[in-house]
Amino acid sequence: MNKPIPPNEILEKPKPPANESSVHGFEWWRRTFQYKTGMGLTAAEKKQYENDYEFVLQRKQCNECYQYRDWILQYSPTVIFMAQQIARLNSSGQVSNGQPSLKFDESKIICDVCPEWRSGGFHPELGILLCQNRIRDKWHLEDTLAHEMVHYYDNTRWKVDWLALKHHACSEIRASSLSGECRFMQEFARRGLGFKVSRGHQECVRRRATLSVMGNPNCKDEKHAQKIVDEVWDSCFGDTRPFDEIYR
């Protein structure tokens, strides 16, 4: 004979899983469903569960983000090249065994949760932030990291004033153009049949640079951002340093 279902008030509160893999176990799923339905739960208990589950999710995202980062730093030709160029600029004459010190400081690339809909960011004093909750996959992280490393390179070489709209726009044009995020397959995946092959790369770079400049506190609106991007376009789009040319 089947045992009767216990009343809601004596249902045991589930504990958070000990590790990420146990999230997928049947027991955690059963208790998760129980909590999602709100059976016998106080508002405080449900909030605690949500906090526990969010913590596990963020830890999983964080671990995955760092695994992707380390793989990309080891195998991506674009990122490896940018890391070498930044390290060369940072060496400032430091020599080890008769050779310039060309080690990039990986601690300058961190993963964290971002509230905005963005995949990464650069801060001239802190380094590169990868938004672990916005990264879709390893290849998305590669494009994001390459983009931010162009900003890192620009800031190291020219000491960019990031509040100056023309400085900001120039680096955004270069980052979108050189990182690979505007190559054919990426744009086709984003825009489908609306993508124009003939000038697709330039249109993508303009669009993404404009969106980034709009986030500058000194930018009034989209029209203002477009004007600034247009003013610096010729000199900045044509500047492919440290690459010899744009690789698509």
From TrEMBL:
Lipid bilayer topology: Peripheral membrane protein
Molecular function per GO: metal ion binding; metalloendopeptidase activity
One Pfam family this sequence matches: Peptidase_M76
Keywords, ordered alphabetically: Hydrolase, Membrane, Metal-binding, Metalloprotease, Mitochondrion, Mitochondrion inner membrane, Protease
Location of the region described as Disordered in the Swiss-Prot/TrEMBL record: 1-22
Biological processes per GO annotation: mitochondrial protein processing; mitochondrial proton-transporting ATP synthase complex assembly
EC number: 3.4.24.-
EC primary class: hydrolase
Annotated transmembrane regions: none
Main location: mitochondrion
Location(s), subcellular: Mitochondrion inner membrane
GO cellular component: mitochondrial inner membrane
Free-text function comment from the UniProt entry: Has a dual role in the assembly of mitochondrial ATPase.
Family: Belongs to the peptidase M76 family.
Name assigned to this protein: Mitochondrial inner membrane protease ATP23
Organism name: Lachancea meyersii CBS 8951
